[in-house]
Specification:
Distance between the termini: 34 Å
Mean pLDDT: 80
Organism: Skermanella stibiiresistens SB22
Family: Belongs to the nucleobase:cation symporter-2 (NCS2) (TC 2.A.40) family.
Membrane topology: Multi-pass membrane protein
Keywords: Cell membrane, Membrane, Transmembrane, Transmembrane helix, Transport
Structural class: mainly alpha
Low-confidence stretches: 455-465
Oligomer: single chain
Number of helices: 19
Subcellular location: Cell membrane
């Protein structure tokens, strides 16, 4: 009897696989290189060391992605996931970088310890599945998409509206002179229109790589207008090895380790929401065992990050949006994306070429992809019973309100203890905590099997919306 291959496990021919994988890489690249740039500059490292941090990050991105997508015994969720350095770790690492007794080696020690911690606690985090019925997962995924829109909007604007530079050893903020320039906004709009045209009139494979083609078209336009520069490509070397412990033997300090373990808890709870979202998008049942493997891969990826001179890893939510846009659910696409990241880490010249793509180009694509994540959350919520259970309305409304706090008012919690900031600066985590607590208060606690049945029913019903 012939067995049907699930779309997640479908092996695509190479001519289709490579462009789809490259599309995933381009979508995550700006976020992937941002953290090593921030930390390297905060530590005052010379340019060649900052460049090495970027190469090491790309290499470790590839390793972590392969662990997550290929899967090994007990590790890896085997869904189309791209792994990258989490921004939740930036604040704590900047504090560590400012402490002379910690420094870069102390950061790596805390990252390694957090990776081991993540591997150990993964089974306990995965048992939280009963806390995530559709009213909770739909709300969290909706907040993920809305939170990501800030990233896409800033890309379209040309970066962050406010930049930071060191003045007499103290960080000072000043307006970004390139933010919101008409030329950049025009390029972002051009990319958006190209993607929409390809989605509407493209057929088959062309529609699947609409985002990639839009980015390529935007890059060509930006280069023709003199806004895409290739000086770094010319000066970058062709090959460079990424060796473990390049900067020396990691150092282990108690407070940084505890801090990074808290960050790891935040990352794993966010990842749990991402995995449930991917399960809904791909039609693959994500049970407690799958969640354990996926969360354990977060820990393994973070451990590898510390060993290979980089930082904590998590699944990148922007790539979840890309899966929704393209409709291509094969994990082998992200496996190929992981291989490309490995190659970019070993070939600095190729990495520099990808890095040369202006943020305004990515902005036009980001608005499509991140909006798709929010739409997925809204689609799940359409299957929630609001008519007979009005309490569900309060769960969604209040949770979204809490999730918006860090976006609307980043300084809202500034007077609370600094140790709480990793928990309070993530709108996704705030929405997750509040929605779980409100659901338990209004609707009580169900079993894992009941949560899975509800999720499956919501997914089936929302297919007809």
């Amino acid at each position: 009897m012939a067995t049907t291959t699930h779309p997640v496990d479908e092996r695509l021919p190479l001519p289709r696989l490579i462009p789809l994988a490259l599309q995933h890489v381009l979508v995550m690249y700006a976020g992937a290189v941002a953290v090593p740039l921030i930390i390297g500059r905060a530590l005052g490292l010379p340019p060649q060391d900052v460049a090495f941090l970027i190469s090491a990050d790309l290499f470790a991105c590839g390793l972590a992605t392969l662990v997550q997508c290929l899967g090994f015994p007990g590790v890896g969720i085997r869904l189309p996931v791209m792994m990258g350095v989490t921004f939740a770790s930036v604040g704590p690492m900047l504090s560590m970088a400012a402490a002379p007794e910690v420094g870069l080696l102390g950061i790596y020690g805390s990252v390694i310890a957090a990776g081991v911690f993540g591997i150990v606690v993964a089974p306990f985090i995965s048992r939280l599945l009963p806390l995530f019925p559709p009213v909770v997962t739909g709300t969290i995924i909706l907040v993920i998409g809305i939170s990501l829109m800030r990233v896409g909007i800033n890309w379209a604007g040309g970066g962050l509206p406010m930049l930071t530079k060191m003045v007499d050893g103290v960080p000072a903020a000043f307006p970004n002179p390139n933010y919101g320039q008409v030329t950049g906004l025009g390029i972002a709009l051009f990319v958006l229109l190209v993607i929409l045209a390809l989605i509407k009139w493209g057929r088959g494979f062309v529609a699947n790589i609409a985002v990639l083609l839009g980015i390529v078209a935007g890059s060509i336009l930006a280069a023709a207008m003199g806004l895409m520069h290739f000086e770094k490509v010319g000066t970058a070397s062709w090959f460079d090895l990424v060796l473990p412990f390049h900067f020396g033997v990691p150092e282990f300090h108690l407070v940084p380790i505890v801090t990074m373990c808290v960050v790891m808890m935040v990352v794993m709870i966010e990842s749990l929401g991402m995995f449930l979202a991917l399960g809904d998008i791909t039609g693959r049942d994500v049970d407690q065992d799958a969640l354990t493997k996926g969360l354990r891969a977060d820990g393994v990826g973070t451990l590898l990050g510390g060993i290979f001179n980089t930082f904590p890893y998590t699944s990148f939510s922007q790539n979840v949006g890309l899966v929704g846009v393209t409709g291509v659910r094969s994990r082998w696409v992200t496996v190929a994306g992981g291989v490309i990241m490995l190659i970019l880490g070993l070939l600095p010249k190729m990495a520099a070429l990808v890095e040369a793509v202006p943020q305004v180009v990515l902005g036009g694509a980001g608005l499509v992809m991140f909006g798709m994540v929010a739409a997925t959350g809204a689609r799940i919520l359409t299957a929630v019973d609001f008519r007979n259970n009005a309490n569900n309305l309060f769960i969604v409304a209040i949770s979204i309100g809490f999730g918006m706090i860090p976006l609307v008012s980043p300084n809202f919690f500034k007077n609370l203890p600094h140790a709480l900031h990793p928990l309070l600066e993530s709108g996704i985590l705030l929405a997750a905590i509040v929605s779980v607590l409100l659901n338990a208060f209004f609707n009580g606690m169900g079993s894992a099997e009941h949560a899975r049945r509800e999720a499956s029913a919501a997914a089936a019903a929302s297919e007809h919306v």
